[in-house]
C-alpha cells in the first residue's frame, strides 16, 4: 500500500522479542528485531495505534532520510536539503535529540545543534522566517541517529517517552519504569488467568500494568499528548476511530490483583495512582509487611515484584533476601514468584534455586529477572504423585 511507511519502535534491552510479538499482534507488517529496537511497516493509523497500544515501546520513530557521513560538513548539507516545509511551518517550533556512535562526531549535543542550524537556516533562506526551539512542547521533535558513517533522520511521533502513561501522580524513592514493569509481567508469562500479587508494591506500577494486561486495556489511553498531535497531517477523526477499535478489544477479568507494602506512604500513593488509572475495581492494596504474611488466595498465585536493591534504599541485603526465600518457602505454596534485582550477590542468599534467570537492565543497572516455583506441599511429594 502506498500509504505505508517504515517505523522504528525503541525499547529496553531484553524486550525486543516481546515488542516484536506485540507489533505482530497489533497488525504491523515486515517486523524486524534490532538491539533495543524493532522496525516495522504500517500507515498513519497504525502509527497512532502503536503509540496507544504498545506496552514495551519507549518511542515510535518515523525515519524520513538515511545517508552516509564521510565528513563533518555532510550532516549540515544533507539535513539542509530535506523538504522541511512538509513537516513544519516557518513560524513553528522544533526540538532535536541525537544519539551518536561515530569517529567523525563525538558529541550528541553538537550533532543536535548542527541539525537544528541546518533546518533553521533552510527556512530563513527560503521564507525569511525561522522556527524557534522549544525543548518542552515543540511542534516537531526530530531524532538524529548516527551509527559509524550512517545517519538516520526521524520524526519522533511519541514525544515524551511512552513509559509516561499518565496515571502516576505519586511516586516513591525508587519507582519502576512503566515499560519495564509491563515487560517483566509479560516475560513472566502472566495472562490474567490467575490471581496476581506484588508484595512490595511501592507506588503500584506493577499492579496497574498487570491489570491493563489482564483486561487488554491500551496502556497509553491516559497520556496527555503524543507528538504526532502537533504534526501538519494530524487526523483527529482517524485517531478517535483507532482509539475506539482498541477499546472494543478489552476483556473481563475474574481474579484478584493484590498489592502489599509495609510503608503507609507507599500504600497511600499506590491507591491514589490506581484510582487515577480507573483500575481500582480490579486491585486491592493493603498495608502489610510481606515477611509476616501468608498466601491470601486459594489456587495458583502469580507473583511479580521489584525488591529494594540497596542502590537507593538502605537495607541489610543478605538478611533481606534470605527473608524473601524463607517467606516464599514457608507461607506461599502454589506460587510462581518472579522478581528483578541488580544485586546479583544478594540472590545467593534467597536459599532457593531459580528455575529461570533472564538478563535485563533497570536503567543502567545490569539486572536479572528470576523465577522461583513454590510447589503445593513438598516438591518430592509432587513428583511422587
UniProtKB/TrEMBL annotation:
THUMP domain: from which residue to which, for each copy? 46-157
InterPro entries given in the database record: RlmKL-like_Mtase, RlmL_1st, SAM-dependent_MTases_sf, THUMP_dom
Question: What keywords would UniProt list here?
Answer: Methyltransferase, RNA-binding, Transferase
A Pfam family for this UniProt protein?
THUMP
Q: SUPFAM superfamilies, alphabetically?
A: S-adenosyl-L-methionine-dependent methyltransferases
Any one GO MF term held by the record is: rRNA (guanine-N7-)-methyltransferase activity
Q: Which domain of life is it from?
A: Bacteria
Protein name listed in UniProt: Class I SAM-dependent RNA methyltransferase
Biological source species: Mangrovimonas spongiae
**Source taxonomy:** Bacteria, Pseudomonadati, Bacteroidota, Flavobacteriia, Flavobacteriales
